[in-house]
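Changelog entry

Holo records now carry the ligand SMILES as an explicit input line rather than a separate metadata file. Below, a converted record for zinc ion, shown in the new format.
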Amino acid sequence: MRNVATISVVLIGVSLLMGCTTFGAISWRNLLIVLRAPDPVPDRLTHPARHDARLAATWIGHATVLVQLDDKFVLTDPVFTRYVGGVSPRLVEPGVAVEHLPTLDAALVSHRHFDHLSKGSLRQIASRTRAVLAPVGAGADIPSGAYEIAELSAWQTREVDGLRITAVPVAHSGDRLPGDGESHAEAFTGFVIEYRGHVVFFAGDTAFDASRFAAIAARFPAIDLALMPIGPIAPATEMASHHLNPAQALAATEILGATHLLPIHYDTFINSLDAPGDVLARFEQAARSRTDAIATAAPLRIGGQRVYVTANP
Ligand SMILES: [Zn+2]
Ligand SMILES: [Zn+2]
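Structure line, unchanged by the conversion:
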């Protein structure tokens, strides 16, 4: 814990020296809660697999979602650690414990940011994961394990035991450490998962880019569920170049033509200057005036699960 605090203080000092006041302020907010235990998840699921579902999603926190398509399970951006990037403490414990996950047919890593590519978390799930798929340039950061590791370039599809997973272009960045973005120019992606007629889009992190969303919709005209980041939102001028705000997440989902939207990427870690609760409040306000194009946009609590398509009895 002392190491975490020390790193935070160093980051704040370096940020201020470099004139990066936003990053310094975010580091300061994390330092203030470095010893705080994550909130527990009430009634945490111990058997997240559903026999009555053809399509279901369980929000484990941040960008980590357990997606069930019939008998297949896909986990997005697995993060289970107490801290990300060594300094940012988790506000809420993971919605499902690693030991209660089903066998994962695939884990998807969207990009190299610490809140999406967690080496410690990938090691935790290694024994129950068949394949890890990542964008070009991110494979070297995936710890080796019993799983297969595959890098996908834009529009490339990998088939894993009947699941079809395609990397799709989004607008974000491939850096992990200062200065390594240029050498990882393709190391960020979204994914489309297809299985037995159902289609799920996972955005990873992305800014608003109507042409990219339209291109994804053209290739995948029947997306059932979009897992969409709805934050962070403050300061707006700095976040907009890399992230969707709530209204943009709704607009992007309409362009994608997705039937359902599950909002993610908020209230799990502090990576901006908005307060916990701000993003969700903005999303719920924006969702009230959405068109009928999106059937459901209801949020889940961390640890919450929703069946989007039920299995016929
Ligand atoms: Zn990111
Ligand atoms: Zn992120």
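Spot-checked after migration. The two ends are 51 Å apart (CA to CA). The pocket of zinc ion (ligand 2) is lined by residues 113, 115-116, 205, 265 (CB under 6 Å).
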